[in-house]
Specification:
The chain has 289 residues and is of the alpha/beta class. It has 3 domains: 5-85, Orthogonal Bundle (Arc Repressor Mutant, subunit A), CATH 1.10.10.10; 88-159 and 262-288, Periplasmic binding protein-like II (D-Maltodextrin-Binding Protein, domain 2, 3-Layer(aba) Sandwich), CATH 3.40.190; 161-259, Periplasmic binding protein-like II (D-Maltodextrin-Binding Protein, domain 2, 3-Layer(aba) Sandwich), CATH 3.40.190.10. It contains 11 helices and 13 strands. Strands 7, 8, 9, 10, 11 and 12 form a 6-stranded mixed β-sheet that branches. 27% of the residues are buried.
Amino acid sequence: MTLRIQDLHTFFIVARAEAMKNAANELGVSAGAISQRIRSIEEKCAKRLFNRSRSGLTLTPAGEMLWRDVETSFQALEDASSRHFDSVASNRIRISIGASFATSMLVPRLGIFSKLHPHIEIAIETDDRLVDLRREPIDLAVRHGLGSYPGLRSEWIVAPKMIVVAAPSLIGGSTPIKTPEDCLGFPLLQEQTQRDWSLWFQAHGTESSTARFGPTFSDAYLLVRAAVSGQGLALINDLYACDELDSGSLVRVLDTQWPTQFAYYAVGLPAVLDRPAVRKFVTWMKANF
């Protein structure tokens, strides 16, 4: 039996998204509707095309064969659509990025990129939510994570490291901080998840039950401001304290550093990441951050 083009397109979207919910969001229908469509397609083929688990969907051998036959064609159609209908905006890049990364890393360097590429227009939206790059007018997202985003492509930008910083006024008259255990004598400023200090002490084999925690901040910029004002020690990605360390308003109190598990990635649809303007911007970020 011959499958309709709509069936093949549904299969393509689901296989690429690796999850019913993600595919449903892309196609603008419910996850239940997508599940029914796939069940109908499998009945027509008389073959199971997907293995289903709590972690998502994977292709069966039969699904792999069908994917190899349809992937190139549908991707070519999407690329052609982008070339013809997005040509007017080809030099405009709308970026979704977290406020802390934008403030500390991107905005101070953006003038350099603009001088190198004055014809490329950059529009920045500071937002920590996971925008839908298929349905929202966003070309590129900068995200902190493991770099795995179903149906999207990601490129590594930079992996920050965790360092302990403090205002000179906080530690000036006290016993020098030489070990992680010495940090327990000061208030410890916290980020939103309230996990970094615990993991940091654990990584260094230090018992932290006596820790005195200070305020919690949802934004790294606010955490840095609190540290500058002498409210406590801050454990922070080194990316966010560069200017303060250079000016001396913060000092690094320990030589030890702990690489974070995650990195920052440029994330987008494959066709969008291949646009010349976007490619130039991503390449520039990878070289300068």
